[in-house]
Batch of 3 targets.
Target 1
Amino acid sequence: MKNILAISAGAAVGTYLRYLFNLQTQFTDYPLGTLMENLIGSLLLGLVSGYVAARKPRDWVKAGLGVGVCGSFTTFSTFAADTVGLFLEQNMWVSLFYILITLVGGISLAMAGFLFGEKRGGGVS
């Protein structure tokens, strides 16, 4: 139960921070808010992961900071942390393959989903 409460509280913080970043950058043509969220979130999850590895805090602390704050602030931070983990535990080629599949697959599926949703919504025929 502590984990669920910690994740919920952390998610509220991460979501609020994400909203603030987007408010500050909503008038630009470049997705600066998203870029900042992804980069800062990656740094934050790296810091949390390093802290967890070194200090071994209680499970609810790990869940609240990692899954809650970082997970709601950005999902890119998890992708970055997974890539680093693959690089450290496997090898460079495995991590590069993961990057390629994630980026190409994610963008392709986002485009397919957009086109499908647009068609189902009565847009382009």
Target 2
Amino acid sequence: MRWFKGQSWHYLSACLLALLLAGLPARAAAPPLLLAEVLRGEVDLPHYWVSEKLDGARAVWDGQTLRFRSGNPVVAPAWFIAGLPAEALDGELWMGRGRFDVLSAAVRRKAPQEAEWRQIRFMVFEQPGGSGTFTERAGRLRDIVARAGVPWLQAVEQFRVPDRQALQARLAEVVAGGGEGLMLHRDDAPYLTGRSDALLKLKPWLDTEARVVAHLPGKGRLAGMLGALRVETPEGLRFNIGTGLPDALRRDPPPLGTQVTYRYTSLTPDGVPRFARFLRVREAF
């Protein structure tokens, strides 16, 4: 009888756990999005719309739910969500140039802070599933934003440049003002998903991610703190990143296994990034 009671209790516990899990909302799959290629060589610039590359958190609105690129829901205030339209939108949650770390902390909170979200804008640049060319979709986005009439929803400005010299001048202007770079979207492109050269990114440097595999001790002024991160690329290449590390991170280094984003100018013949500089810990939104 004692054995039967024990077995019954285990069975009952399993049933209750199954019922509880069944009631939890399933995490949505990552939405299929258009991802940019790096601009290399020459392109037919008169056939591209150009915009500033915003350093924010990619987000997608499907008419009902706002989600990060990962598929995780964005925990935003009710008033922020209520102001969004019925149409699907793709864009960036953004607080302005040079404020990614502040934005990242704000959008990852389980309880959104009113004062922070009043500074966040949803900057939209694509209409998921939209018909026609990108030129036509960009026009519809401007109309959708105008009808919504809320200050936290804005369409990213699209502009033309006549030649490479003008493009480089705009890039220099954006970077000098604290911006990250430029995006180029082919004007006749249909709506696409996946990585495509219909969307190109241009920055004064390249950036990518690597995994932290070791902490190297500092010397001199940095004695007792982190001197450099030993990182490994997805291809298995290991190298050190010692510049760009803020003192707060040197005192409390990211755990081994953490993905970090770094920038560099080019690769050596052996594939090692030249002038690698730490940008940030890669956040999993």
Target 3
Amino acid sequence: MKFLLSFIFLLSIICNVSFAYDLRIIDGDTIKLNDDRIRFAGIDTPEPKQICTLDNIEIFCGNLATVVLKEKIGNEIVTCEREKELDKYNRILAECFVKGQSLSSYMVKSGYAFAYRYFSDKFIEDENYAKQNLLGLWAMQFEYPWDFRKKK
């Protein structure tokens, strides 16, 4: 990581190019990368105010998904492969990666996101793995995010 940043800095001096990298995690399936608001395509995470229950304890599972994503990214560089269309909120749809690993796959396989079957079947195997192993949200009582949003 230090080498990569040093290389980019050196390259920017030699080529007289500036490099800006501004990342903000909005929630478990949305980030802001520089000026672009990016929604992870093919997955869905609970809403920030959505509550799940584990052993009669209420947990804000949307916030939990956000924390899991933040911890996964840490200080690493995020790269994204953009899809052609935008979502209904004009966000870029993309699959994003850290060190070559899909963040969408990671979130679903660890149980903190769901395969969004309405839009894609790409992450169904990851979801089946998390469900079978009771990982993340699968160890809790929860409502699917799309059902939660319908009630609002």
